[in-house]
Design brief:
- By secondary structure, the protein is α+β, with helices and mostly antiparallel strands.
- It has two domains: 248 residues, Aminohydrolase, N-terminal nucleophile (Ntn) domain (Glutamine Phosphoribosylpyrophosphate, subunit 1, domain 1, 4-Layer Sandwich); 170 residues, Rossmann fold, CATH 3.40.50.2020.
- Helix content is 30%, strand content 22%.
- The chain has 17 helices and 21 strands.
- The strands form five sheets. The protein has a seven-stranded antiparallel sheet. Strands 5-6-7-8-12-13 form a six-stranded antiparallel sheet, with helices on one face. Strands 16-19-20-21 form a four-stranded parallel sheet, with helices on both faces.
- Strand 5 and strand 6 form a beta hairpin.
- It binds adenosine monophosphate (AMP).
- Adenosine monophosphate binds next to helix 12.
- The site of adenosine monophosphate has 18 residues, from helix 12.
């Protein structure tokens, strides 16, 4: 049986008991746009029924017509932004999913990726379930509908006891909003308060935008039920395990102004840069970042090394992340659309370029060439995380193992491929010590290949040849 590939990079937002619920959800999704740019949607509840608006596209486009909000009445709403791999990017997969079942209506928004989705799906289909989407999330809905108990909370708990993997979930019914974070706590999820309203968001930056108070993070394995009396109930219905939050959220994915897993992302990234400077110093004239995600680490590197930080690459902010372009040919072009060097600054200089990660290597190669073409005398590439050698099965969209350049190439080979003078990656120990936080056992599967929730690894053959052609000068 073909096992599921990671499909979900997402953000979720929900608000309960506010007269402008759908408007505020729209703003919350705006703040979470970096977590998914392919599609988005909002489902609201007016107390009697649910209302939805969801489409492919960015938040600003999908909700560009203010009349849309008239069709999203009520005092509670949940929303979702999504990025998925090309194969699954179809209209029917846009979240939140909304269904009618024997007890009423329910909508769900999901950030994460289940590892036993295909097995559960096959089992449910054998019992007659008919699936309308290709998303893991629909499996949860079917499981909820399957259980016979009256209580929705019990149904959700029973359903989630069957699923394995990463999930931050927001459920909305006519009268309730329920948030759940998986026992490993892979993805971030926080709780806020805006007047009498409760707010739940993937990242705290969404609370800031709507001026909600950050109350706390939702704990791994915790379920928060917003109740009609204006309170919340906190439940821990799952077997307690050692949480493994995703360290890549700190490296790349989360917004620097967010606080996740108890730590501000900007400060964590700056510390990664400082540690990188200690591990891989170099004589150079200027430190520049690959914007935006490399900026805090570059500032840390500059501070620690004493080499001045400059904005040597200027980003066009009206272009999406190059990584989301589906075809290699477009991605090559995309780097130029997105970034342009400041020639006068780089000419004749020994330049340190900082980026947060190398995935396929295509971006780094283009950037190193771009900096050299701008007149740099030397280009030293420094990466503020260890080599990304293994795919993520818990909700970060990384390609197959064979497409990850570091899974089949040494650091020297990668250095040659990206055409840098030197290349240094932050060590795993350096990453962990910089992020810190006592006894937290982060998930670092993408670097170490050890998966905290078991997943049968697909038998990818590593393909050196994939990169060799380009190394030999063909493009
Ligand atoms: P690549 O050309 O595949 O090596 O892309 C590397 C760039 O992609 C780096 O600048 C990272 O900031 C960025 N990146 C790393 N991981 C991801 C991800 N999961 N989604 C989108 N972009 C990413």
């Amino acid at each position: 049986m073909k096992l599921s590939r990671p499909q979900e990079e997402c953000g979720v937002f929900g608000i309960y008991n506010h007269s402008e619920a759908s408007n505020l959800t729209y703003l919350g999704l705006y703040a979470l746009q970096h977590r998914g740019q392919e599609s988005c949607g909002i489902v609201s509840s007016d107390g009697n029924s649910l209302h939805a608006h969801k489409r492919m596209g960015l938040v600003a486009d999908v909700f560009s017509n203010p009349d849309v909000f008239k069709k999203l009445p009520g005092k509670s709403a949940i929303g979702h932004v999504r990025y998925s791999t090309a194969g699954a990017s179809v209209e029917k997969n846009v979240q939140p999913i909304m269904v009618d079942y024997s007890r009423g209506s329910i909508a769900v928004a999901h950030n994460g990726n289940l590892v036993n989705a295909q097995l559960l799906k096959a089992e449910l289909e054998a019992y007659g379930s008919i699936f309308q989407t290709t998303m893991d999330t629909e499996i949860i809905i079917h499981l909820i509908a399957t259980y016979k108990t009256n209580s929705l909370v019990d149904r959700i708990v029973e359903a989630l006891k069957r699923v394995q993997g990463a999930y931050c979930l927001l459920f909305l019914t006519e009268t309730r909003m329920i948030a759940v974070r998986d026992p490993n706590g892979f993805r971030p999820l926080c709780l806020g308060k805006l007047g009498d309203a409760w707010v739940v968001a993937s990242e705290s930056c969404a609370l800031d935008l709507i001026e909600a108070d950050f109350i706390r993070e939702i704990e791994p394995g915790e379920m928060i039920v917003c109740t009609k009396d204006g309170g919340i109930k906190s439940l821990f219905p799952f077997k307690k395990i050692d949480p493994t939050p995703c360290i890549f959220e700190f490296v790349y994915f989360a917004r620097p102004d967010s606080t996740i897993f108890g730590r501000n992302v900007y400060l964590a990234r700056k510390e990664l840069g400082r540690q990188l400077a200690r591990e891989y110093p170099v004589d150079a004239d200027v430190v520049i970042a690959v914007p935006d995600s490399g900026v805090p680490a570059a500032m840390g590197y500059a501070e620690e090394s004493g080499i001045p930080f400059e904005l040597g690459l200027i980003r066009n902010h009206y272009v999406g992340r190059t990584f989301i372009e589906p075809a290699q040919s477009i991605r090559h072009f995309g780097v130029k659309i997105k970034l342009n060097p400041v020639r006068e600054l780089l000419k004749g200089k020994r330049v340190v370029v900082i980026d947060d990660s190398i995935v396929r290597g295509t971006t780094s190669r283009k950037i190193v060439k771009m900096v050299r073409n701008a007149g740099a005398k030397e280009v030293h590439l420094r990466i503020s995380s260890p080599p990304t050698s293994y795919p993520c099965y818990y909700g970060i969209d990384t390609p197959n193992r064979k497409e990850l350049i570091s899974s089949s190439h040494t650091i020297d080979e990668i250095c040659r491929y990206v055409t840098a003078d030197t290349l240094g990656y932050l060590s795993e120990e350096g990453l962990i010590s910089s992020i810190g936080h006592g006894n937290t056992h982060y998930c670092k599967a993408c670097f170490a290949g050890t998966y905290p929730v078991a997943f049968p690894k697909p038998a990818d053959t590593l393909q050196k040849g994939l990169f060799e052609e380009e190394m030999n000068g063909h493009e």
